[in-house]
Design a protein that fits this description.
The complex is a heterodimer.
Chain A (H helix, E strand, L loop, with lengths): L11 E6 L2 E6 L4 H7 L6 E2 L6 E2 L12 E4 L2 E5 L10 E3 L10
Chain B lengths: L18 H7 L28 H7 L18 E6 L3 H12 L4 E4 L15 E2 L9 H25 L10 E5 L2 H16 L9 E4 H7 L9 E5 L3 E2 L2 H14 L3 E3 L4 E7 L2 E6 L2 E10 L5 H4 L10 E12 L11 E3 L4 E4 L14 H14 L8 E11 L6 E4 L6 E5 L7 H14 L21
Parallel strand pairs in B: 1-2, 1-11, 2-8, 11-17
Antiparallel strand pairs in B: 3-7, 4-6, 5-6, 9-10, 10-11, 12-14, 12-15, 13-14, 16-17
Classes of the chains: A mainly beta, B alpha+beta.
GO molecular function, one term (chain A): oxidoreductase activity
Pfam families (chain A): Fer2_4
Keywords (chain A): Oxidoreductase
Chain lengths: 98, 446
Amino acid sequence: MFRRLPDIAGDRVSFTIDGRPAEARSGDSVAAALLANGVAACRNTPVSGAARGPYCMMGVCFDCLVTIDGTGNRQGCQVRVAPGMAVETQDGKREAGR
Amino acid sequence: MAKRMGRSGGARPKDRTTLAGAGKKMRDCPKASGVQDEDPVGRLKRNERDSPRDEQAVEFLGAKTGVGTMTEPKRGGEFDIAVVGGGLVGTAVAWGLARTGAKVAVLDEGDVAVRPSRGNFALVWLQGKGMGMPEYAGWTRASTDSWAGFAEMLLEQTGVDVAFRRPGGFMPVLSQAELETRANAMMRLHNQPEMVRYPYEVLDRAALLKEMPFIGPEVVGGTYCPLDGHCNSLRLLRALHTGLERSGVAYRPNHRVERVEPRDGGFRLTTAAGEIRAGKVVLAAGHDSARLAPMVGLEAPVRPQRGHVIVTEKTAPFLHHPTGYVRQTDEGGVMIGDSFEEAGFDTTLQPGVSSAIAERAIRFFPLLAKLNVVRSWAALRVLSPDGYPIYEQSATAPGAFVVTCHSGVTLAANHALTLAPMIAAGGLSDAFKVFSARRFHVPQAA
């Protein structure tokens, strides 16, 4: 679905999506890295269960919420992907304490 | 984490506020009071469910008055009854009046109205209520007992589920001394003559842990009342308004009532959008009833008392019982409340108060610390001098009633199913004398 522009450089960064190895470029936001890895839907909404994915990419829409390194409801577009980072998609509501 | 504010839209990393962060920053700010009207609490015993006074609660349900048709001739104008106020109290009464077949108008202010109905904590609560006025405990118990049926009726009529649950409510405490105080207060409450008893328990930490394994290390125990519950009060307001529409009630927004005058055996109400005539008038205007009541020989000496509420993002259900200060809504958000401030009509959010209630909530339930706050606000309780309701018909202008209370959610079932039929039928029973504003007068003999 999404492809990188040919002139984009940056070091490769290894991280995981739901435990599966994935690769991004240094400087990618988590939301961009998810899209680049073909994960268009990263969560289900807490009330109706509808699928949601990164949309505005600038911190406004809150649709790209994911669990990052164990913390739920992080805005994927506002966090840079880091080596070894564990990104998890969210099914429904975040759990309190997580 | 990100503190989402409606207007600012995006949350930048520097805006991030977790509950823990808010609590730490503001530790020296004014404390939220740990006390509320629902908190006097009890000793290490359980009351019998069947006490001799239980029938009083049933009596309040108004079996005698029931729901009938308006038989009185329409006097003085286009409506049988005009209800002033479109909040939870006014709409619950109007909804009940409409069920009797009366032709009802609800005169409301606009969106700028001071509206606790949109800012409340949504408890349907009995625990601790009635110190100094045991009849209030009976009245409250009757309403909580009627609530499930009331919610059912609203659902059937409007399709709106107000999410009423009655799993029992906890009041956790942070010190042994506080537990003693609550236990003693609960015992004093139940030792009052005329008290309608209800079951409660005083729990130690081990007992509390069984129900809520996630309590903080400082929680020493708490009290529990199996009759406490909660609902979604925004949906309650919507259900009542929808119900009014379906039953043909004339809802008139932007009709702030300037004047009420007895006229031709009924009442003339001068509003911001013209004149309305009605045979009877019910003042359920919350804070504004203080201004309106004297126009028809009544009194409603109410004052605003501010309370802050914080709500977090929606989280998976974990808190299965409401508490007096923290509850999880049907959709998953965690509401934190229970501050008490005398600040007139100022609804400006005080960060120090928000922080204090956030910090206290985290001491009860440390797992809240990581949650994102999505909204916070301040609302104004409608309080009479003793905190109890005023229900009264005017002696000098019969047909004019005042209905005002702090607990518009808890008492909604009674207002709709018990009080409204009495108003439609012409008067309040003797059981309501205790709720007259005359109680605020210094007795002549004293």
